[in-house]
Design goal:
Length: 471
């Protein structure tokens, strides 16, 4: 059976940027920034995107194009069924978990978009969000949002995902840019820009580990790393496409959209005298609704804003649904129609459960997803750097042009540096969840020791079982 493919490389890039630049940038990024010191969080996030996100994204794209299948099939082909199948299954499960809560938030946004012209939630935003965020109304809008995503995925890569991404992603950039310019014209925004852009070294020094965990989770979440969504998208690529170039374009575009979202949300809140560091996942809805209610023409601005967020949410949602759907098509010979229907039903059930349980929603959308993405990224780095190596270099260099020379330093970083960094991030996140206070030296020691154990186990297993190692 012939697999679908991208009509053009521009279509792939727009779809990949859309996958990355969704709710992670516009919903999650502003409230995490607000809760973690503003500029301190922004600096830490940018460093992690550059140092971990870009080479990690390139590793995932290399695996996708090399394997030419979705996570289960690609990893099984590349490293054998003993490890490839369970690791690929873990990636697919991660996308299902992510879309389960993602679709609930998409439902919130859909509801706010539809009601924005009336200003229905301006008067009592806190009470309105409490009613809208969980319960049967949240279930209904979650199902409606999921249906929109499923319809697009049903039509496949070229006729569905690519066509929609070519329209939605540019629209998101234009609308966010316009909103950022409009925000700059509002009074009393200077404090918001200072909070967001003036680097606060003292805050970062005293809250380093408090900032590191959320910033790392955001860097992985916003680039769709570790779940297999980018691997799936890359599996549809032609062999002559430059993966290093596309990685840079995706990462830069995604970061620009995230920064734009911050330039809209944070100064706007400060202009209305609203504290941005409260509300968690509901901050975007409660605080901004308060701001829109105080502004002339607030209903119109709210409509444009939430419509922009809705477009971004849909582009990310389709990448998350495409991974399990394509897995059923590739590995089990199921028709796209049946696969889309089946996975939509599964996520309808799991998402409805989260829509009914507020504490579980926050736990899944925060630490659970952060841990799963970190484990997934560590596995991708291990496969590329410890098992494939020369094959990964060859895939990097295919179509790379003048960027071919960066293959060797990239694979060295993926082999030795990044696994320790990602393990350190995982250790920090788990220690925070367990309320353990570990010194920096202890965290580093645990990360190095755990990485060496994993490397020894992986290389020994691959040498004994499959002979796939290219070390």
């Amino acid at each position: 059976m012939d697999r679908d493919s991208w009509v053009s490389n521009v279509g792939f890039v727009l779809a990949a940027v859309g996958s990355a630049a969704g709710l992670g940038n516009i919903w999650r990024f502003p409230w995490l920034t607000a809760e973690n010191g503003g500029s301190a969080f922004l600096v830490m996030y940018l460093l992690l995107v550059i140092g971990v996100g870009v080479p990690g994204l390139l590793a995932e794209l290399v695996l996708g194009r090399r394997g030419r299948q979705t996570p289960i099939g690609a990893l099984r082909t590349l490293i054998g069924s003993r490890w490839g199948t369970p690791l690929g299954a873990f990636n697919v499960i991660t996308t299902v978990v992510m879309l389960s809560f993602y679709s609930v938030v998409g439902g919130w946004i859909l509801r706010y978009t539809l009601l924005a012209p009336t200003g229905a939630y301006f008067a009592q935003p806190q009470q309105y969000f409490r009613h809208a965020s969980h319960g049967l109304p949240a279930v209904g809008f979650h199902l409606l949002f999921l249906t929109i995503v499923a319809i697009i995925v049903y039509f496949g890569v070229s006729r569905g995902i690519e066509r929609v991404s070519k329209i939605m992603l540019p629209a998101v950039v234009v609308l966010l840019g316009g909103l950022a310019i409009w925000t700059a014209t509002q009074p009393n925004t200077a404090a918001g820009y200072a909070f967001y852009l003036d680097f606060d070294g003292n805050y970062l020094a005293t809250h380093f580990f408090d900032v590191l965990g959320p910033a790392a989770g955001q860097a992985l979440f916003t680039l769709s790393l570790g779940a297999g969504a980018m691997l799936t998208y890359a599996s549809y690529l032609d062999e002559d496409v430059s993966l290093p170039r596309d990685t840079l374009v995706i990462a830069i575009s995604n970061t620009v959209i995230g920064v734009l979202a911050g330039l809209v949300v944070l100064p706007l809140l400060f202009s209305q005298g609203i504290s941005p560091g409260q509300g968690g996942p509901g901050a975007l809805f409660v605080a901004l609704a308060t701001a829109f209610g105080s502004l002339p023409g607030g209903a119109l601005v709210a409509t444009v804003f939430f419509f922009t967020v809705l477009l971004a949410a849909v582009t990310s949602g389709i990448s998350l649904l495409e991974t399990p759907v394509a897995t059923l098509v590739d590995n089990y010979g199921m028709s796209r129609r049946r696969a889309t229907l089946l996975m939509t039903l599964v996520i309808a059930v799991t998402g409805s459960g989260l829509a009914l349980a507020g504490p579980m929603f926050r736990f899944v959308s925060g630490p659970v997803v952060d841990v799963m993405l970190t484990i997934g990224l560590f596995a991708f780095l291990a496969i590329v750097g410890w098992i494939l190596r020369q094959d990964a270099v060859a895939e990097f260099q295919r179509g790379a042009g003048r960027l071919r020379g960066f293959a060797t330093p990239w694979v060295l970083a993926v082999s030795w540096v990044l696994p320790v960094v990602v393990m350190f991030l995982l250790t920090t996140t788990l220690a925070s969840l367990a309320s353990l206070s570990l010194a920096t030296v202890m965290r580093v020691a645990i990360a190095v020791f755990a990485t060496l154990i994993c490397r020894t186990a992986v290389t020994r297993t691959t040498h004994d079982d499959a002979g796939y190692s290219n070390r």
